[in-house]
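We treat protein structure as text, and this decision shapes the records that our systems exchange. This encoding replaces a full spatial description with a residue-level series of whole-number codes. Below, we set out a record of this kind in full and without editing:
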Amino acid sequence: MTSKRPTPRIRKSPEQVRSAVHQAVVDLLSDLEGADLTIPVVAQRAGVNHTSIYRRWGSREALLADVVATRLEDDWPLKDTGTLRGDLTAWVEAGVANIRTPEGRLLVRAVALSMPHSTQDHPERAQHFERRMQSIELIRERATARGENPPPLEQILDQPIAPLYLRAVLGIAPPTTGYPERLVNRLLNSPDTPDAA
């Protein structure tokens, strides 16, 4: 009786490793809701050595940020519609499209729940949110250059952005029609917002 040999590991290219790891993260989030999403578990699901993941990403949080950036952040370069209202609506529409899918809600929820109270010691955990802030600042800069008066960053975060992330964290899909316009209208028509529209 011959002993069964282990299946040899097929050598993958760097892009094949990245693709396999990304898909493993998405699959595990669906199966485990992120509770046991560790580097060794991801490596086993992806069929790669865990040291390959540590070398490339360094941490679970950096890996999550990369998956989100690849799968969700497809709104760059930002569309210039010619108005602040149009730019904000287009940007919110992209966010709504992301969290309308189960995969998108899982990814945003995983990143949001992995954020510590302070990101000074773990800057990679804030990569997704930093890119979001850069997008909003670009919209504000364009509006200012056109002579419009955009709302402060904090107000944009509190009104159209926070509801999207709350829905992702709670696993609630947004309404099917008119939701981006409703959020932007609420922001621009707020008594606290400068006359921007």
